[in-house]
Specification:
Elements (H helix, E strand, L loop, with lengths): L2 E4 L1 E4 L2 E9 L7 E2 L7 H24 L7 H16 L4 H11 L3 H17 L4 H4 L2 H17 L6 H4 L4 E5 L4 H6 L7 E4 L7 H8 L4 E3 L4 H4 L5 E5 L4 E4 L3 H21 L16 E6 L5 H6 L5 E5 L13 H14 L4 E5 L25 H7 L1 H14 L4 E6 L5 H20 L9 E6 L2 H5 L1 H7 L2 E4 L1 H9 L17 H17 L3 E3 L7 H10 L3 E4 L4 H9 L3 H13 L3 H11 L2
Parallel strand pairs: 3-5, 5-6, 6-7, 10-11, 10-17, 11-12, 12-13, 13-14, 14-15, 15-16
Antiparallel strand pairs: 1-9, 2-7, 3-4, 3-8, 8-9
Helix pairs in contact: 1-2, 1-3, 1-6, 2-6, 3-4, 4-6, 13-15, 15-16, 21-23, 23-24
Amino acid sequence: MSFALHGVGVSGGIAIGHAYLASHAALEVAHHIVPRDQVNNEISRLDTAFTAVREELEVLHTSVVDGPAAAEYGAFLDLHRMILDDPTLSTAAKTYIAQNQCNAEWAITQQMDVLMAQFEEIEDPYLRERKTDVIQVVERVLKVLLGHPGYVPSSLKRDGDSILVAHDLSPADVIQYKQHRFSAFLTDLGGLTSHTAIVARSLNIPSIVALHQARRLIRDNDILIVDGNQGVVIVDPDKHVLSEYRLRQSQFELEKQKLKRIKTTAATTLDGTIVELHANIELPQDIEQVKENGATGIGLFRSEFLFLNRDSLPDEEEQFEAYRTVARKMRGLPVTIRTFDLGADKNLDSAKRVAANPALGLRAIRLCLAEPQMFHTQLRAILRASRYGQIRILVPMLSSITEITQTLHLIENAKQSLRQEKILFDEKIQVGGMIEVPAAALCLDIFMRKLDFLSIGTNDLIQYTLAIDRADDSVAHLYDSLHPAVLRLVAHIIRSANRTGVPVTVCGELAGDILFTRLLLGFGLRLFSMHPAQLLTVKREVLRSSLSDIIPLTQKILKADDPAKIQALLVKLNS
């Protein structure tokens, strides 16, 4: 039976393909139906994985016979062996494979969910928290299983024909899934400007979040139509609907091809004002897409993605090679490297932190200053790479003059260490700050005296100004880019920077949204940075715009306080 689901479209376009389900357990794993003659093989794989983990725990147990923590650690390992041997986990998972003809990874995570629900009903807080041990045991089993894959589903063999359906995905998950070439992403959770949505947009494929029931209602291998423009998923469409959407898909692709005609055209308004359009990237391999869309620089290299999906930190040499690769490929065009913005929903696998409110916790520059050696390693790598191009350093989430002073001091220390080793670097490398905390926006004069340039991170600036978690779809309707406070704050930052001659960029999601292109031009913005996939549509909007028409309407929008009036004026501005 055909039915439709509605969510929040975070990346436009239309995709048609087969559903590929990921588990909603702590570890996201794939679900697929295995042929009947492969069921016993899957049960054997699970048995082998359990045996391997038992041996692993035994080795660990014998290695901690001495030392002050031996008794406590030994008890911890004994508990894990008890969980591993509990029929509620092992036997039930094998039964699940036999009954549902599914892969071993899926069966073990589904059984883990059953156990999690049972633990949640326990009143004793200590016993209730033992669910963490269950998760850790299942993770060990999964690592063995994933290292010895079994039956490969046909849905993954179809190049670009698989649509990932998950309860939730972290930014690290999305980056990891890049190599699988999914044609679309669907998640139950998430918000329009969550980090996961941002990374999904960078893949330039249709993506919808906040679907709530997609993982439960969609079955593996279902035919799906994903309309990222409207935020609609159609499950098992009939042939007429399928035919209509194939036509729309062709038209959408045709429009994308037409846009390539302006790739080499300078981004200049109708009245002759030059606008610079830069690109945001996560990894060095994104440079190819940057070049395909004619960006004139990298306005934001999110360096933290070099740190994700790994057990150990990238050393100085690995980071240096990544930064140098980007600088060389951009052939002298500016490359702005943001120091690692870890924390919140982007954590290191080797250093998971639990915070009551991670968005307000130890993240970005706060984490850098708390981990000076890790920061020192990155700064040295960036400085060394600065010889190979026009590299700039961008510091995220600054909120006080003290943080700026400490950061500049650490940069100078990194420079001095390179000088002592006679390693060359750009002595005049520019250092800028991201304005994404209201405190920074309101103390802009202090920031501009200390920094060479500014970059407005509108995603976090809106989140912190309106006190709304941008990853929480339950309050997504309150996340308002057109709120008068947001518009006035952004306009204030741009005008203040222009008045003092400090270069300013918008690198948040507003920069790539054509609904805001003319508004930002009217505020005085002349440098935008966005996902490479958004560059040409924004350029087309710049080419169609006249500042003499834009500025008077922009002033009216800034003075308005009624949401309906602001919306009406914006429609008029973009008409």
